[in-house]
Structure formats: structure tokens, C-alpha cells
Amino acid sequence: MRTLIIRGNPRPIGYTRQMTDLVVQGLREVHAQVKDVTLSDLTLLPCRGCYHCWQITPGQCVHGDDMGPLLEEVRRAEVMIWTTPVYYFSMSALLKTFIERCFPLYAHGQGVTRRGRTRNRLRYPEEWQNKKLITLLVGALRDPAAYQPALDTFEWIADSFDFELGGQLVRPESYLADYPLSKPKTIKRIRTAFLQAGREAGTTGRLSPETLANASLPVSPDEQHFRDYSEIYWTHALPLGDEGLVPSKVQKHVAYDVRILMREMVRAFDPRAAAHAKVIVQFLFPDRQLAFVIRVDHGQCALEEATDPNPDLTVRCDARTWASLFVDRVDVRELLKNHRITLEGDKSLFRRLERWFPPPSA
Fold it and tell me: How far apart are CA 71 and CA 82, in angstroms?
């Protein structure tokens, strides 16, 4: 399958690139013929709306830039995949410029789309008979409604070209894409979905409902968690200066933040394991001046960022040590032996924590 990738991401190190790379990997696994184009590497001037490509040199733009050869790739492609970050509920300016510069593919006069909409006449209608379009959107926001304007726009554009819309991939919550403890099984399903999207695009040009659903799986449990995690992300990114512009650099810091680790720990709570327990466990992190209380009550669990005057168990350590249990999988016995973790109260409860809060698995 001759496939044309059009990357509309201005940043070469962002999450749109990561997701697109997975799709390209899937394409190559099924031996699709791939032309991979990064728009930020090209010179594309904006459309002037001059109609030169209709009236003076039919099918040829007045600009002598990199769009000329790219239009030929569009004409040859059986499947096109347009990828973009979501900016202001729409596509990037790079991708919008590319689409507007496809104007020479139209001609004067009116036609009717497959959906019965009036549009400009296609210059090469015979070339569009089986051409398919797949789009990929990546954004920071969690709410699916935030992506609908861009999805609707792509649907109209596909219809205006007589492209079959083979599927629209959406990856929200981009802040959490690299976070290793935010439901690692879910993150694996998401990444596998983008790989599978490449395989399906390279064989049929159509994405399955299951692939589309898995690509959009939520990572955070609700909007409040998402807002909290986003705020924590930026508390690490802003002080890092230039390094804060690189998501992978920021994630190394976010992964060790106990404010997220404690929330993720509670999310992993197994109510059956704690069905007969009623205890209060307090966690103190003096180096960060943070304190948390977990209340377990017969299969119910609640987390507070606070202290309690009468906990059944108090766990005291520095934040990095506690994070190392989750991120680096260090031996808790060594930490206790070296007094990097100290316990006060009913120390037997500490041994139960792993059963009540099983660590996430990859």
C-alpha cells in the first residue's frame, strides 16, 4: 500500500512525533511503501488565493517552493496519514498551510461530494476513487469534546476531496503519555493501538473501531486527577529552563513526585484484600514537607494530603526513597535496615500494604 505520511508537528520532540513514529513502525511491519514527510523541514509559503493555479498555469501553484513535488506525492498515494498536535481546538498552522496549498488539485466549476455537499470540481477525479485519509490528533486536554472541532474539519476536508475517511486517531492527555506509573497496562494498550493503526493503514487503509478506541483510552480517572497531574508536570517543567522544553526530561522528574505516586498507589487499591481492615496509615515526607493519610475502611479507601493525630502506622522517609520503591523497584528490606524508611505504630501493617496496594505491572 503506497502510504504518504504528512507530519504537521512543529516540535520534533513532542508527543505527536512519538505517536506518529509508532504508526510508521506498524506500516513498515506490513511492508507498506512509506513516504514520510515532515512539513517543518520544508519551505511551504501560504496560499495567496490568487487562482493562478486555475487560470494561468492549471494545476500548478505560483509559488516555486517544496509544495510542487509534494502535490505529486498526494496524487500517487493510496493512503494518506495527516498528523498534528491540537492547537486552539484545531490543526497546526503547518498542516493547515499544506492543506490550503492543495488548492491546485481543484479546478473551476462546482461538483458534489459523496455526501451530497457542493464543492469545487476536482482536477483529477479519476485519481481519488479509492484514496483514503487517516488523521492523527494529539493534545494535552482530556475532554473528548476538545478534539471534535478538528475531527469535524477533517471530515469535511476528506469529503471535499472524495477521500474515504479511514479513521481518526485521537490521543488526549499527552502529559501522561510517558508517565511510567499511570496505568502501565493502559499505556501499553495505547502504544500498541498506534502500532496496530499503522498495520491496518498499510493493509486496508481502514482503522478498526477497537484500534480507534484503544488509542483514545483515558489514563487519568477523572478531570480532577488530570488537572492535578498537569499542574504537577508544570511545577517541574518551569524551573528546568531549556530542559523543560523536552517532555522526556520533565517526565524523569515527574516520575519521582510523591504527590502523583500516592494518588497512583491509592488507585491500585484492592478492596478484596482489605475487606476486613479498618486502619489509618500516615506517610510523612519531611524533605518535601508533605504528609498524606490513607484511610482504609472495610474495602473502602480514601487519600488526604494531611496529617492525622492518631494513625495506626506512620511511614517516614524522604520522597526520593519512597519513589524508588515504585520507579526503581529497590529492596524495601534494605531501606528499612538502613533506616531510610522508618515505621512508628503497628509495624505489621506495613507488610500488608503491598497486598492492599499492589504495585502496577508493565
Answer: 14
Short-list 202, 125, 134, CA closest to 162: 125
- Tell which residue, 269, 296, 292, has the closest CA to residue 280: 296
Sheet architecture: strand order including 79-85: 33-38, 2-7, 79-85, 132-138, 164-171
What is the distance between the alpha carbons of residues 253 and 256, in angstroms, rounded to a whole number? Answer: 6
Instruction: Give the whole-angstrom CA distance, residue 172 versus residue 208.
Output: 19
DSSP state for residue 305 in the 8-state scheme: S
The residues with which 47 forms a beta bridge, in sequence order, are none
Among 337, 326, 331, smallest CA distance to 360 is for: 326
Long-range pairs, 216-219, Cβ under 8 A, ≥24:
216/144, 216/169, 216/170, 216/171, 216/172, 217/186, 217/189, 217/190, 217/193, 218/142, 218/172, 218/173, 219/173, 219/176, 219/177, 219/179, 219/182, 219/183, 219/186, 219/187, 219/190
Phi, psi of 61 (to 5 degrees): -75, 150
Task: HSE, CB side, 13 Å, CA atoms: give it for residue 76.
Answer: 12
d(CA 111, CA 160): 9
Alpha helices for 122-203 (secondary structure H): 148-161, 184-203
pTM summary value: 0.87
C-alpha cell at 163: 477521500
Tens of pLDDT, residue by residue over 179-216, are 655 556 788 899 999 999 999 999 999 999 999 999 99
What element of type H or E holds 75? helix 67-76
